[in-house]
Amino acid sequence: MSTIIEIQGLTKKYGSLTALNDLTLTIEEGSVFGFIGPNGAGKTTTMRILTTLLKPTGGKAWVAGHSVADDPRGVRRAIGYMPDFFGVYDDMKVWEYLDFFAACYNVPKSARIGMIDDLLTLVDLNHKKEAYVETLSRGMKQRLCLARTLAHDPQVLILDEPASGLDPRARIEIRELLRELKNMGKTIFFSSHILSEVADICTEIAILEAGNLIAHGDMEEMKKQLRAHRLIQVKILGDLGPLQELLLQHEAVQGITPPGEADLPHDVVQFDFGGNDETLSNLLAQLIAQGIRVVSFHEETGDLEDVFLQVTQGIVN
Amino acid sequence: MTELTTEQPLKKKRFRNLRENPVTVKELRSRMRGRRAFVVLTIYLLVMGAFITLVYAAYASASSGPFGPDPREVGKVVFGCVVGVQVFLVIFVGPAFTSGTITGEKERQTYDLLRTTLLSAESFVTGKLLSALSYVLLLVLAAIPLQSIAFLLGGVVLEELIISQLVIFTAALAFALWGLFCSSAMRSTLGASVMTFAGALFVTIGTPMLVGLFAATLAPFIATLSTSFTRTMEIALQYILIFLAATNLPATLIVSELFLLQEDAIFYFMGSAGTSRFWLPTPWPIFILLYLLLAWVLYWLSVRNVRKIANR
Question: Is residue A233 part of a domain?
């Protein structure tokens, strides 16, 4: 895989406010890159610089080998951009909207008719082809805008909060669409506040706070790196006392959350475990050997929200 | 990956087929869609027709001749009225269309979408200009049959019609580009409209008032000096007056008409200063050159504004 987006020391200042501070990042071709961070973290600023809409104060960036500062036209040919807030031309029909943007991307007239049908099929709006844009729901408009970004078959899609403000069904539709685009080989660089959705489809993530990159890497690796210890939950039958005593004596157990705390059921104990799989297996065997009637013994997988909360400090809110 | 987009040769790209400019197609489609455009055009022509009928009736009732009003004089009045309405259209209606056209995209949050496409700044500005101008020109052209009534009545020569329409078309281009420039420079339609109309009013009414005020203030001083005026100064003053007239649309039309009628001059005529005679141009060719130059500068500035990558 080759690098399709390269950012080196990107900085953006608005007077004394540093919106983006020395951001360095690479994104591989074909990846789905989630850009997460609280409001005002600098996500939109980064995206606006990458889409040639904003001049950086310092640093450089390339998209598909084109410099955003020196070859904006080359960058525009390579990207499809969907901003967080965007308007549509209400007095146009759905097919006219796509035809207009395809023409803006120099797609020949002869190629546009078939292309519009294909795009509408992809975003499941074929039945709305002759409808006016103003009659579409917000979710439909979002899908139409996504179709628009594909009018010139770009290599990279830069999507700023593509699912914001949508109801759960529309969010699922957008997520499925992104999966489809990923399967089509598109590189997707998108920001989101809905962390579970980022976790669902991303191959890589970057976490930004107050203009600084605070974590970046492969989704699963990041979870592992950021969680030095593992959370194990044990459910047993009978008295929990001996279990807790035994766990506290074990050298790899770093702490216990008693039943009833942290939303735990009354028959479940949770503990922080610092050992490897073999030690964990031995612990389970020890519990059983001690006559503790284990019903379930499993590791809690940390989600992206845990990672996010762990690495961010709430500097920007 | 399939390359769908086509890169046209530079020359072809620069002078992209106007008919296929996506912005023009979109704007005209929206503007001419439904009954609105045709209703506006019909009302406009009905009002113009009623206005001309009223002018004719007023002129006829005021006439003291035994055979009614002199048709040639009525023809001139009708012609003057139609030109007056056209002047109003190009000074105020044309810029009204263009002043909100780019800020409208900004306010509608579609501007960024367009700027990340391959649409060049030139194509964008040209498309916006043509779509706004074409509707104004449609209104101007639609009034020509009404103007032709003046020919039936007599009193108006073909040269008057050609000169007036050339001047009006040039002014329409320049004023529309002024609105477009304001729209490209401002963030809101309100700001762009205020700037556009302030500029249009200044050029149309403000400058003649300033010149008049200046002349009235300096008149006593000039009167005392006039005896010592050299011939060269007198000639220069006449050139300056012609040039000043050529900066203003109504003044250009009126002064050109006067020279056409009194001196039978289309392009130039013989002026006099004392005993010497010299060539003086009529204002309309200067007006056309000046306003074309202004239009080109405004077009270039608008393109530059659209092309500029934001700092904020």
Answer: yes
* A202 and A277 in a common domain: no
Distances (CA, A) of B241 to B170, B212, B248, B293: 21, 11, 11, 20
DSSP designation for B90: I
Chain B: closest CA distance from residue A143 (Å): 15
Range of the domain at A109: 3-222
- Pair (A202, A261) in one structural domain: no
Q: What is the mean pLDDT of residues B97-124?
A: 93
Residue A34, classed as helix, strand or coil, is: strand
So what's the pLDDT on residue B1?
40
Confidence of residue A18 (pLDDT cuts 50, 70, 90): very high
**Domain residue ranges in chain B:** 14-201+298-307, 206-287
What pLDDT is stored for residue B147 in this prediction? Answer: 79
pLDDT higher than 90, residue A90: no
The distance of B96 to chain A (nearest Cα, Å) reads 20
Domain end call among A222, A244, A276: A222
User: Which residues of B make CB contacts under 8 Å with A?
Assistant: 1-8, 20, 22, 25-26, 29-30, 33, 108-110, 112-119, 309-312
The two tokens of residue A132 are 């006016």
pLDDT at position A166 over 90: no
Tokens of B32: 């001419």
Task: Determine contact: A30 vs chain B, CB below 8 A.
Answer: no
Model ipTM?
Answer: 0.82
Place of tokens 């003649």: B208
Question: How many folded domains does chain A comprise?
Answer: 2
Of A55, A73, A152, Cβ closest to residue B4: A152
**Burial grade of B99 (CB within 10 A; 0-12, 13-18, 19 or more):** buried
- Return the amino acid letter for B258: L
Decide if B271 contacts B255 (C-beta within 8 A).
Answer: no
Residue B248 Cα, gap to closest chain A Cα (Å): 38
Between CA A155 and CA A68 the distance in angstroms is 15
pLDDT at position B8 over 70: no
Q: Of all helices (H) and strands (E), which one includes residue A21?
A: strand A17-28
A83 neighbourhood in chain B, CB within 8 Å? 109, 112-113
Q: Are residues A196 and A135 in the same domain?
A: yes
Residue from the list B3, B4, B311 with its beta carbon closest to the beta carbon of A55: B311
